[in-house]
Design brief:
The protein is of the alpha+beta class. The protein contains 5 helices and 10 strands. The chain has helices at 98-102, 105-125, 127-132, 191-233, 248-279, and strands spanning 7-10, 14-18, 25-33, 39-45, 51-54, 57-60, 65-72, 88-95, 137-146, 176-177. The strands form 2 sheets. Strands 2, 4, 6, 8, 9 and 10 form a 6-stranded mixed β-sheet that branches. It is elongated.
Amino acid sequence: MDSSTFFALDPDRDLEFRRPFSAVVKQSLSVTNLHSAPIAFKVKTTAPKQYCVRPNSGRVRPGQSVEVHVLLQAMREDPPPDFKCKDKFLVQCIPINNDVMGMLPDDAAPFLQDLWTTAENLKKSNPDAAARSFAMAERKLRVNYLPPLDANSQSPPQLNKSATLTTTNKPPSPVEEFHAAPLPRATFHTPQQTFKPDTDREVRDAKEQIKKLQATIEAYRSEVERLSSIRQRRSPDEKVSGTNAIPLSSATALAQNQVLPIQVVAILCIIAFLLGATFF
């Protein structure tokens, strides 16, 4: 047995996803341990944002299998019929001992991390030695898109090499680990929830301005009452003489001062009414 045969995959070459892709499409992948010792596996992909893998890593006892679910995320629209998908998956396996196999996931995590690091470093520095020592084995899977089940059976169209999705116009990215995560949940925010903080702040500012205007109105009203009382105490035909008499120019200015605050009060009342009608 060589390093490439101490585990088996089903399917072993291609992962096929059937159209339409308007919803999540699921495919199953079985990882079987053909080794006499337990193994640990990882699943990686060239398109980590397009797929969700559950679980993307795990441990398998000798002679047993683990089923992995690969979820293709929903697309806004299906790719062209002649589109050739370039996405790939990589399944890696390393042998582990029975002690690590029997540990709880959290306890086994640091030991598995050390084993993976050692195996990957050996594979990079000496691939032949890694293969002979069963340090690591890996298999690649291609992704194929199948037509809908109700499509008429026709000969497959000629592939157009220029037909690519927007996300695959760039050269294939290097193989990287895919971190399994729950499917994203849609969140909806009503306009009231979205803009409520700004509206509250505007209302508070308006209230503060109204309070200031009301205080100004009260001040002008008090001033008008004071001037009116002064005018009533003085006789219209009071002689302009002596130090206590009010000069004619001062009386005229006093009358003008009485008219001006009333106009200001009227304008401020209108502004306060408009602000109250707008924000309350």
